[in-house]
């Protein structure tokens, strides 16, 4: 996406990003996350750097936590769900999820014995306890439950080699992209806790979901090359749009970018209002969502995970300053069209 007024990617505000990156690699080795082959790949994917991108502030030992945790998530998502047998076996994936969820709630329980992912999760929970309030920790646990629910849902499609419809994919992508597990850690990193009266208001929840959607639409766009070449089952917006509307891959990619831009343009409007009307903490929270979107973009076009130099992906190294759409309109995706009701004077909908 080169353009005259392009944003340069790769801006890293933290001088300690290389140290965070190195320590995430060491943590993966210490806890033996994933098979040796998977781990050899994961430690080259700049996952610690990703944490440094989305948390430009905060103490390095706190930023280390989302770095190690995202690597752990890929140990589950790649190791078990997408490349392992459990990804085709929702019943057994549910059993593993139940064990891991108990560990994250009560790290002292002996569930799953010495399983490396269990040990890694115990370590993460204990470190989070040092820095987070009980409320932030509880939301992190709840978000992890959403993630596990959604990968079990995804496994039911993988088991029958099915492709979800656009509405179901868009809804479940809010969870199986593991975006909602990150904001409690961003609050921890910035050292504040958003009041639940603000967090749980419909307008803030809508804006938060919009940010999650932009991030996972971006991931579906950036990861399509590696996913469609993997020889494995994959479910992403491109595949879903090809099937939903009978599009070619190129047309589906264009449509995915257009839909993503509609949501980004929408995100900017209520966010501006909330920034004016909300508390200083809400302003910090909304700024964190923007850092998360931008950090995920910059990481997505630069990580070896997606650039795959042996079979290079045609990823951009700059972003357009201007979105593909100037004004947002509901996308005709029933589970999310209510977001547009949050705009003043937009009670009745026309689709875009
Ligand atoms: C993402 O979807 C799967 C999660 C387990 C990734 C964990 C990463 C984060 C929480 C960072 C923010 C989310 C992003 C960038 C989606 P998917 O499509 O399996 O990821 P992949 O890298 O394989 O394309
Ligand atoms: Mg996945
Ligand atoms: Mg994946
Ligand atoms: Mg992906
Ligand atoms: Mg590839």
UniProtKB/TrEMBL annotation:
**Keyword check for Nucleotide-binding:** no
Q: This protein's superkingdom?
A: Bacteria
Q: EC no.?
A: 4.2.3.181
InterPro entries per the UniProt record, alphabetical = Isoprenoid_synthase_dom_sf, Selin_dien_syn, Terpene_cyclase-like_2
- From the Swiss-Prot or TrEMBL record, what is one GO molecular function term? lyase activity
Known NCBIfam families for this protein?
A: selin_dien_syn
Q: What is this protein called?
A: Selina-4(15),7(11)-diene synthase
């Amino acid at each position: 996406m080169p353009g005259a007024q392009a944003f340069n990617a790769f801006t890293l505000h933290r001088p300690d990003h290389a140290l965070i990156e190195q320590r995430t690699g060491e943590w993966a080795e210490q806890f033996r996350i994933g098979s040796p082959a998977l781990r050899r790949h994961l430690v080259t994917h700049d996952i610690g750097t990703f944490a440094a991108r989305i948390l430009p502030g905060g103490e390095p030992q706190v930023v280390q936590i989302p770095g190690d945790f995202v690597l752990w998530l890929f140990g589950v998502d790649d190791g078990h769900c997408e490349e392992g047998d459990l990804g085709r076996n929702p019943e057994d994936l549910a059993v593993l999820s139940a064990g891991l969820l108990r560990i994250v709630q009560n790290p002292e329980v002996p569930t799953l014995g010495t399983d490396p992912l269990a040990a890694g999760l115990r370590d993460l929970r204990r470190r989070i306890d040092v820095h987070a309030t009980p409320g932030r920790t509880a939301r992190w646990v709840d978000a992890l439950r959403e993630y596990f629910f959604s990968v079990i849902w995804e496994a039911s499609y993988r088991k029958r080699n099915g492709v979800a419809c656009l509405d179901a994919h868009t809804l479940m992508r809010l969870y199986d992209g593991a975006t909602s597990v990150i904001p409690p850690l961003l609050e921890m990193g910035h050292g504040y806790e958003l009041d639940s009266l603000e967090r749980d208001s419909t307008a803030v929840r809508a804006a938060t979901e919009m940010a999650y959607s932009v991030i996972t639409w971006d991931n579906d766009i950036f990861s399509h090359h590696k996913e469609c070449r993997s020889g494995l089952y994959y479910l992403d917006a491109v595949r879903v749009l090809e099937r939903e509307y009978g599009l070619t891959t190129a047309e589906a990619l264009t449509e995915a970018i257009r839909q993503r831009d509609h949501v980004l343009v929408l995100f900017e409007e209520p966010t501006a209002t909330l920034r004016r009307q909300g508390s200083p903490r809400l302003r910090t929270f909304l700024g964190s969502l923007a850092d998360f979107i931008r950090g995920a973009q910059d990481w997505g076009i630069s990580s070896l995970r997606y650039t795959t130099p042996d079979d290079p992906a045609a990823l951009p190294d700059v972003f357009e300053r201007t979105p593909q759409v100037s004004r947002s309109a509901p996308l005709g995706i029933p589970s999310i069209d209510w977001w547009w009701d949050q705009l003043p004077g937009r009670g009745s909908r026309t689709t875009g």
